[in-house]
């Protein structure tokens, strides 16, 4: 079982990662126009936050692997899979079906366009969540959970030497970059998290946590500023290495937060992260449409304002909503956001 300090830090980490994911989807950086004034300002502000946000998904997979192997047993494997049906599969299909109904039926009807659906297209759209694409992360997670006995035997028979597996994959991926939304890219992250958990390697920083947390924040922000200023692309070697180092930086950074939020009522807010992951995209996209109706996207300065408003208002809606549902309508919360 996790001790209280580690459990709290995982809640904090998941919450911060959820906010970073909201920031990724709230961005307008891909539609900025270099011809309009204020381009550099808007680009730097948004890209800086985007680069920091790129740390979210790798850290999320590391934490998922760690949590799985804190209590993994072959005997409890079927029960674990059943639990994942309720925490991952049901929310996945709920949001996928809802998005399909909105994007492929409700919107065409509202716009007076014909509805073009076939049985095959509906099945594929639902299975792949084509109308709610950010749910892609559930598919690799599901595969990792199903294959967890394989990891268990790797750890059992190769012992700690198996840490060379993600190291080798790191260098292989440097030359053959797997697809971001696929399974291969995330194997090292999930593997490392599971490895740390299985071999009970201490991951809490008890030596001057605030000092190292502050240093980690400075490094994370510094690298983000550097990659923003040099216009680094996601395929660049430096950015590739940053993505693999990001989970450690995020984890150390949160040592500052763990010493601030101690009250049980405050910690309860941080437990809404699963709901945020599943529910935020519709809110973000809806706010983008609503805000652009009031603030014309005719300058890059306006695009920076739109970005901040989208980010702040999305958080202001989805976080309290998740908290209320979790506190007063727990069955609904679990259905919409897992557990």
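-> sequence recovered:
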């Amino acid at each position: 079982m996790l001790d209280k300090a580690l459990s709290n830090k995982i809640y904090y980490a998941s919450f911060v990662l959820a906010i970073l994911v909201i920031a990724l989807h709230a961005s307008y950086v891909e539609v900025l126009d270099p011809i309009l004034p204020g381009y550099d300002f808007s680009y730097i502000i948004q890209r800086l936050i985007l680069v920091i946000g790129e740390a979210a998904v790798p850290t999320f997979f590391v934490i998922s692997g760690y949590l799985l192997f804190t209590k993994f047993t072959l005997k409890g494997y079927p029960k674990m899979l059943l639990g994942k049906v309720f925490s991952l599969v049901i929310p996945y299909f709920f949001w996928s079906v809802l998005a399909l109904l909105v994007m492929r039926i409700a919107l065409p009807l509202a716009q007076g366009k014909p509805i073009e659906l076939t049985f095959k297209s509906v099945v594929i759209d639902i299975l792949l969540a084509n109308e709610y694409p950010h749910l892609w992360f559930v598919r690799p997670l599901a595969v990792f959970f199903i294959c967890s006995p394989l990891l268990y035997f790797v750890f059992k028979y190769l012992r700690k030497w198996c840490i060379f597996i993600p190291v080798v994959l790191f260098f292989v991926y440097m030359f053959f970059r797997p697809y971001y939304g696929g399974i291969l890219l995330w194997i090292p992250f999930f593997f490392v998290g599971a490895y740390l958990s299985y071999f009970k390697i201490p991951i809490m920083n008890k030596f001057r946590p605030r000092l190292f947390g502050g240093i980690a924040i400075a490094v994370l922000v510094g690298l983000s500023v550097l990659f923003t200023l040099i216009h680094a692309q996601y395929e660049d070697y430096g950015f590739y290495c940053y993505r693999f180092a990001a989970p450690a930086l995020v984890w150390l950074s949160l040592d500052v937060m763990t010493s601030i939020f101690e009250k049980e009522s405050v910690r309860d807010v941080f437990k809404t992260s699963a709901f945020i992951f599943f529910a935020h995209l519709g809110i973000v996209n809806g706010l983008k449409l609503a805000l652009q109706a009031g603030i014309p996207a005719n300058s890059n300065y306006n695009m920076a304002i739109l970005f901040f408003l989208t980010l702040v208002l999305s958080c202001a809606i989805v976080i309290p909503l998740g908290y209320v549902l979790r506190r007063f309508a727990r069955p609904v919360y679990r259905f919409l956001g897992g557990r």
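The chain has one domain: 4-337.
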